[in-house]
Amino acid sequence: MDAFISYLQSPWAIVIALAVAVLIGVLIRVAVSSRRRSPDDVSLQPQVQAPAEPRSDAPADAPRDEADQPRAGPADAAEPTVEEAAPAPEASASSIERPEPLRGRMERLRERLASSGSLGRAILGVLSRGQLGAADWEEIEESLLIADLGLEATDTLMEALKRRVAVESVTDEARIREILREELLALVDPDMDRSMNLERPQVDGSTKPAVVLMVGVNGTGKTTTVGKLARILVAEEKSVILGAADTFRAAAADQLATWGERVGVDVVRSEREGADPASVAFEAVREGVSRDVDVVLVDTAGRLQNKSTLMDELGKIKRVMTKQAPVSEVLLVLDATTGQNGMKQAEVFAEATGVTGIVLTKLDGSAKGGIVVSVQRALGVPVKFVGLGEGADDLAPFDPRGFVDAIVGSAQG
Ligand SMILES: Nc1nc2c(ncn2[C@@H]2O[C@H](COP(=O)(O)OP(=O)(O)OP(=O)(O)O)[C@@H](O)[C@H]2O)c(=O)[nH]1
């Protein structure tokens, strides 16, 4: 016994004990990391990678049609798994930002619409000349067209202004301003329902997340808008998952992950550039359903190489997502500065996906606010949000009155 005790006190025994402890530590690490890679263990890490294809255990209502199967190209042929992403810097509770609440945003951003105000100033300047001739009306028409109001809306507004200015024979500037405000507001249509449909649908007795698909041409601000919208939803205390189905540009997924991290929202993504977007979208909704979140927001690429490829791709993304939960909203992101070009794109996207609302970005610093009216008229769907800057909270629900007031200016304007 004494010999054993003295052996335990010897340096060799200490070395051996340390070696055994290290070995046990290594074995525990290996066991934990292999468990994390298990396909069924979807971790609640800041990011979740999408599999190459929907999971093999996808429910019976998973896509069946060949055309609806997320693509499994050579790079996509890996075994379908849900892997934990390379650990993203973990967002500690203290580093998570508190986004600005919705109320008052349009008010705060009102000054950003100042350039749209140049339209109001130009028209008011002419209208208050009194005794308007053909050249004056042409000047007004030109201003409206430059502001992207579109031909039809310009004609409607011109007629209304001519009639009212003649009938009321007004020269008083405040009254002219009031007439212009009323007529513009009628064009913007304050009665349209601009709320986002975030009601969680019931399917076969279970409550699914509200699914929102973002579409639009590259560069319009889709990814940024998904990030800003996530912040709005977080501010409204909703649980959210983002889907990075813009697999065309690898940086888009990183960009989205950064937006997500800032407000503690997870992102479903694929590490492979060019992975099948429908697969990522499918997985994002599946993840949202399994975590029982309130909203799944999915970003897409929207390259407009050719109309039929784009329509096929977006149509497929939407069909595949619908296998998991119905798509509640398809928001088309349009860059206000692209004017009538943007209108043509809008029509293609609307045809492909059935757009339910428009987000007009970059309205700050754009004198082309008239596009609000023309795009609503062309698609018959409302502008629901406006982007008014590059800041994280520079997205506001579109408020027709605030918008028209910004264009027409105050009485002192
Ligand atoms: N001034 C201003 N800039 C904006 C607004 N919204 C987005 N942007 C900027 O527009 C640029 C493009 O935005 P992204 O979100 O990357 O555009 P995208 O449509 O996702 O582009 P792809 O990923 O290439 O399809 C970025 O520099 C954004 O900061 C806005 O409302 N105002």
TrEMBL record:
GO terms for biological process: cell division; SRP-dependent cotranslational protein targeting to membrane. SUPFAM superfamilies: Domain of the SRP/SRP receptor G-proteins, P-loop containing nucleoside triphosphate hydrolases. Residues 382-395 form the SRP54-type proteins GTP-binding domain. The chain crosses the membrane at residues 12-32. InterPro entries: AAA+_ATPase (IPR003593), P-loop_NTPase (IPR027417), Signal_recog_particl_SRP54_hlx (IPR013822), SR_rcpt_FtsY (IPR004390), SRP/SRP_N (IPR036225), SRP54_GTPase_dom (IPR000897), SRP54_N_sf (IPR042101). Residues 70-96 have a biased composition (Low complexity). It catalyses: GTP + H2O = GDP + phosphate + H(+). GO terms for cellular component: cytoplasm; plasma membrane. SMART domains: AAA, SRP54, SRP54_N. GO terms for molecular function: GTP binding; GTPase activity; signal recognition particle binding. GTP binds at residues 216-223, 299-303, 361-364. Signal peptide: none annotated. Residues 38-102 are annotated as: Disordered. Pfam families: SRP54 (PF00448), SRP54_N (PF02881). It is found in: Cell membrane; Cytoplasm. It is a peripheral membrane protein. Residues 54-69 have a biased composition (Basic and acidic residues). Keywords: Cell cycle, Cell division, Cell membrane, Cytoplasm, GTP-binding, Hydrolase, Membrane, Nucleotide-binding, Receptor, Transmembrane, Transmembrane helix. Its EC number is 3.6.5.4. Involved in targeting and insertion of nascent membrane proteins into the cytoplasmic membrane. Acts as a receptor for the complex formed by the signal recognition particle (SRP) and the ribosome-nascent chain (RNC). Part of the signal recognition particle protein translocation system, which is composed of SRP and FtsY. Belongs to the GTP-binding SRP family. FtsY subfamily. This is Signal recognition particle receptor FtsY. It comes from Schaalia odontolytica. The lineage of its organism: Bacteria, Bacillati, Actinomycetota, Actinomycetes, Actinomycetales.
